[in-house]
TrEMBL record:
Biased composition regions of type Basic and acidic residues, renumbered to the chain: 283-295
Keywords (A to Z) from UniProt: Metal-binding, Nucleus, Zinc, Zinc-finger
Keyword Repeat applies: no
UniProt entry tagged with the keyword Lyase: no
One term of GO molecular function: zinc ion binding
Residues annotated as domain SWIM-type: 108-146
Family: Belongs to the FHY3/FAR1 family.
Function comment: Putative transcription activator involved in regulating light control of development.
SMART domains for this protein: ZnF_PMZ
One Pfam family it belongs to: SWIM
GO biological process, one term: regulation of DNA-templated transcription
Organism: Juglans regia
Protein name per its UniProtKB record: Protein FAR1-RELATED SEQUENCE
Amino acid sequence: MNAFFDGFVHSGTTLKEFVDQFDNALRKKVEVEAIADFNSLNQTIPCVSPSDIEKQFQTVYTNAKFKEVQKEVLGMIMCNCTHVNTQGCISTFDALDQVSIDDHVKTFKYSVYYNEEECNIKCTCQLFETRGILCRHAFRVCNMKNITLIPEKYVLDRWRKDIKRRYTLIKSSYDDLRSNADARRYEVVVKRCLKLATRVSPSDYHVDAFLRVLDDFEKKFESLTLESKSSSTKVKANVVADKGKKILSPHVVRGKGRPPTKRKVSAVEKGATKKKKKQTCRKIFDDESQLHDLPESQINTSTQPMPLGNEEVCDHTDAL
């Protein structure tokens, strides 16, 4: 749980934030897995040995899990197996495994049991039961028994790259089914099957009849042609686009920040601005009148004439 939500929630996260971050965590996990699936289907990790068993896992397993298998294949170099006894169809082997820990080599002893009739192999290290892959000790016994192909029961579907994950077809809060045709078809089929299951479940006779119909359909489905498959998987859309409909421009939406137009001004501010303009114009007019009343001798000849008249000054002030 901590590893799943690492980086998304903390001790101070509120309940609402947790719901949002839960969706973000799921979305991130799905994106990472989608990238990993793409790399597994389009990239091939080279084998480190000529073993046919390694090539088998290279073909079917994802890149991440195949790297773990390669570690066990390389570990066979430090593993020595000896045959102990055989009782009926079961053979027992002792596996001595040398592991390097802190620059020290330690030897561990394990027991491997091989059932030749059922082709079962089991090791006391329990790696297959815990990690889902066979251990180096089992690989060593397979080499001693000249086994070049591992039984399918030891190739788990969980790590296969050629299997469609069923949970990817389930509708989620962050997924848009309109962009995923497989998920849309899956939802339609599941809803119909749930409806039928509710109707037939009260009676054993109806359940048996329903299962017989499903068995017949499953047999016929195997013999369907590609054309019939494509036609049977079509889903009727709820809304059909009108090809002749004219596409209009989208509505103009106000963007963020300050609008480009002038801000709204109150009536009090408008009155104060007009009063200030009138006072400025009156002061300029009075100064010019006093200047004309003075004698020419008192007027400084170096004074430059004003570049703007009364009307131009007022207009310029209004513009400002």
